[in-house]
Amino acid sequence: MSVRLAARGLAFAAAACLTLAAGRARADVTLLFWPGPESQAMQKVIDAFNAGPGKTDGFAVKQLLFSRTGYFDKELADLAAGSKDFDLALVTTYTLGRYVPFLSPVGDYVSAAAQQAYAPAALDSLKSDGALYGVPTDISVHFLYYRTDLIDRLLKDAAWQKEYAAIAKARLGETMTPKPPADWHWDDYVATSLFFTKSLNQASPVRYGTVLQLKNLIFNVMLWDDTLVADGGNWLTAAGKPEIDSAPTMKAVRTYLTIIQDHATPPGSIDYEFPEANQAFGSGQVATMLQWNAAYAIVNDPKQMPMTAGHVGIAPMPAGPAGHKTHLHSLGIGLNKASSHKQQAGMFLTYLATEPAMEIYAKAGGTPPMPAVLQGMAATHPDFALVAKEAAQDGYVIRGGTASTAMAIYTLLAEKLSAIWSGQVFPADGLKSVQQGMASVLKP
Amino acid sequence: MPAPRVIRRREGWLLIAPLAAFLVLWLGFPFLTDVVYSVSQVGFTTLRQPRLSGFGHYAAVLRDAAFWHAMGFSFRYAAVETVVQVAAGLALAVALAPILSRHRFLLAFILLPLMIAPALNGLMYRLMLNDFVGIIPAYLGMLSLSPDLLSTGWVFVTVAAIDAVQNTPFTLLLVLAALQAIPGELRDAARVDGASAWQEFRRVVLPLLLPVLGIAGLVRFIDSFRVFDHIYVLTGGGPGNETTGISIYIYKAFFQQQQLGLAVAASMILLLLSLAALSLLMHRSLRGAVA
Asked: The whole model's pTM is what?
């Protein structure tokens, strides 16, 4: 009896080992990714690949998901350790500099013809020293979101316009007239935010004029950078020296501080990031929002945000002396230098860098940086047309934004700006501290 | 009789050998690596080729105002948490002991907060503290109160309260067990001698609970000092660096600023301070036990 049991156990173990070995012999490709709408959309592309070219070539692609919190740090640790547990991994514009030493270039897998299909800014944002290190799959830009019902009324109602002019004069020192959001400068955004703040204007139908994301977080720095660059500022000079302690930076800081100090943003904004800002706007109690393009599908969804669905307008970020400017970054798929299945992983990358694959991705909820795909779906996705326009015209990558020091600078800015927003430090002292910190980070 | 003692010692070594080997492998090797990294120039691309550079990282840490700010936060936070959780755990254990002795299943509900992962706890409070959909601002609004619980003035109290709600059941459990171990005859004797309830608690129960309160306090202090999860998820260490404790400081220096040597040096300084404090505590408690 025990001999039979032992024999059965051995047979089972042998079968399990053979199955594992078969999987390994089949050279399946593992993609390290983070959970969320991007991985859900990517799964549809993977399913199509596995049913098509993958089946023909005798291998499959599967995802390995790390949690979003601390994702980039975990990926860095695994790449630096030479992990062979994954062949492909998520890369982004702002983490590329850290990952490049552990990635293989992917230019060989993306033909020149395929590269033509991409928005040039998207490809450039995943290049380092001229070499492409990621196949772009998503593009992220910023929109100005606004309540169409409120702004339409503001543009027609004489009494509202009179009050708008009075508030602008009192708080900003100049008489102003409301404009369509697509023509806004930063002063128009501030004036409109103040107008729709109930504590300043009892006639406002909403409580807050806008919602800012002020948490100690690098993505919130990317949003604030739009005011900096529109005002003619940047992180670094053309020569690579820090120029954060400058007049354009102070102007960008004062834009935010005016909104905060006049309570035009909810008090909890000091801890807001993407979901909280969406929730605030979707509550129907906020008139405008500066937010990532990915929020459009959420705040305009009648199931998720019934208070705002159907009343959401999008426009380019407000302009400054340098015009409308929006931070642009790409998400992409990079090739792990330590991968043992580079050939198969490269075949998946070649498939990924095609319009049909990106159409699948877009239909499943992604925002691929291929203008033709975006324009082709503009009828069902009104935000895609603006994404394509922004990527082509207003998108920028901040100087130093792809370097290996980018994350360190983002982290420093996130902490110091958060201290300024909360009143922990004076703006001038905070910016001086950032300048010194950046000089230290950039020291060779 | 020397022979039996030699045999016992050898057997003792053999018995702890597996655990010792495990500790040497899983703790000793990383510890040695940390020592080397703390005195080396090392980055993510040179993890296997650190370059010895002396004690510069230690000097940089000791000069860094952000390090001392983080240490100050950790000390204050740990001190407050220890006092609050020990006092609340004691009070709750004493108050609930009669009910819990009759309905033991209620203990499972009281211990529920301990079952939640601290990071998930932080995420939960992000929702509960939200201005628009959070239940905490909603209930406070009913009382005409609207404090900004994550602002500079309130954030320390908020994160401390979240920790206290989650971890006080740990102290309660320890004190409850100790309460139940107190011989009933001692309390009966005090009552027979005419002691009031307060005198019985102060003169009989509390002295017998002191050792377990000390242990609970020490464990909570250590845990609170190295707090990370719920604070990082809820505030990211902000606003500014308002809630950046030593664990968040080390994490950010290591992963986000990529100053591996400096981060490891900070953790080594923390280790040395902790060893010094623990040695002192052990020395005093052993001296007390011998006396």
From this structure: 0.88
